[in-house]
Amino acid sequence: MKATCWMGTGNVQVLEVPDPKILNTHDCIVRVTATAICGSDLHLFDGLVPSMMKGDILGHEFMGEIVEVGPGVKNVKVGDRVIVPFPISCGKCWSCEHELYSVCENSNPNAWAAEKMWGYSPAGLFGYSHLLGGFAGGQAEYVRVPFADVGPLKVPDELSDEQVLFLTDIFPTGYMAAENCNIHPGDTVAVWGCGPVGQFAIKSAYLLGAERVIAIDRYDYRMRMAQEKGGAEVLDYEKVDVIDALKEMTGGRGPDSCIDAVGMEAHGTGIAFAYDAAKQAVRLEMDRAVALRTAIQACRNGGTVSVAGVYGGFVDKMPMGGIMNRGLTIKTGQTHVQHYTRPLLDRIQKGEIDPSYIITHRLPLDQASHGYEIFRDKLEDCMKVVLKPQ
Ligand code: NAD
Ligand code: ZN
Ligand code: ZN
Fold first, then answer.
1. Which ligand is nearest the CA of 190, by number?
2. Do the Cβ atoms of 55 and 70 come closer than 8 Å?
3. At residue 284, does pLDDT exceed 80?
4. Is 261 in the pocket of ligand 1 (CB under 6 A)?
C-alpha cells in the first residue's frame, strides 16, 4: 500500500510499504477514505519530537471503511464506515474506565521510555513517535486499529467524510480546551492560535456559553476565519501588545480563561522569543512556550489557563510565581477523544456545527509532502489539508 512516511526533519514521502495485518484478536483494518494533516504532525515534520525513525508512517486523523476484523471484535464489523480517535485506548484500565482515554495505561508498548521522561506513560497514539508506541499512522491506504471495540465510531451515511473526519481529533480537542475553561455565562475567553484547533476552541467556547471570545494570531486569513466563521474578536500579536490589549478589552481584569492552541512551536517577537528559538535549536529546551507564558500573564486572577497546544518536555521561564500567587488553574492534556465523539457527532447531526468549514485543501495522498509544506508555511491561505487515498 501507499503510506506517508517520515524520512527525516522536513522530509515526508509517500512510499510503497507492506499492508498492515491483524496482529491481535481485538484489531481491525481500516481502508482509509479521508485523512488530514494536523498541527501536531508539524512538530514531527520539524524534527522536534524525539524517537522518530526513518520510515515511520504518519497520521492520526483518519476515517474509512472496516475491511477486516480480528476474531475478538464485537462492536464493529466489516463494511462499517467509522472515524477513529487518535489515542489508542484499551477501554478496560483505570484511566479508560474514568474516560481519561489519552492516558490509557495499556496501549503504549514503549511505556518505559515515556516514564523516564514524564513520570508515567500516556496512551499510545497513531503515527506519533516511538515514545508514544511506534504505531503506524493513518495517512495511508490502510491502517491497523488496535482495540477496535473501543475507538472506532460508526458514522451515519447521510454525513460526508469531511463533516465527520475532525471528530478524530481537532473538534474534540477544541471542545475539550473550552470545556476545561469551566465557562460561566458572561465569560470572556481568549484563544491563542487561529489554526484548526484554535478555530474549534472558539466555536466550542461559544457552544459552552461564553459571551465573548478574543482570538490571537498573526496571519490575516486565519484571523479572518476566526472572525467571520467563529464570531471572535481578533488581535494580531505582531501589531499590538497582547497583554495590554486584553486588559483594556476586559475592563482591566483580564479574560476569565485563556486557551493555548499554539503549543511548542510558538512564534513571537522580541528577546524572549529569540531566547527560546536559540535554546530549542541547540536542544537545550524542547518547547518554545511564548504563547503559553503570555496566556498565563494575561489571565485574570483566579482564572483558568487551558493548554491544548502540544508540549514535549521541559519549558524554561515558567511564570510560576504568577500562577501561584494569582490562584490560576492550569488544565491540559492530549484529548480524551473517545469521551467526545458521540456527543459531538450529535451536535453535527443536529446542524449546530459543520466542521468541514475549515478545509481549504483537498489533495490526493500522493501529494502529502506538498500538503505538509503549504500547511507548515501557511501558503495559499492553507488552514486544513485533507488527503484522499486513491
Ligand atoms: P497550526 O500550526 O495550524 O496553528 C497554530 C497557530 O498558532 C498558527 O496559526 C500560528 O500562527 C499561531 N501562533 C504561533 N505563535 C503564536 C503566538 N505567540 N500567539 C498566538 N498565535 C500564535 O496548528 P493546529 O493544528 O491548530 O494545532 C495547534 C496546537 O494544538 C499544536 O501544538 C498541536 O500539536 C496541538 N494539538 C493538540 C491536541 C491535543 O490533543 N491536545 C490535538 C491536536 C492538536
Ligand atoms: Zn492532531
Ligand atoms: Zn486503557
1. 1
2. no
3. no
4. yes
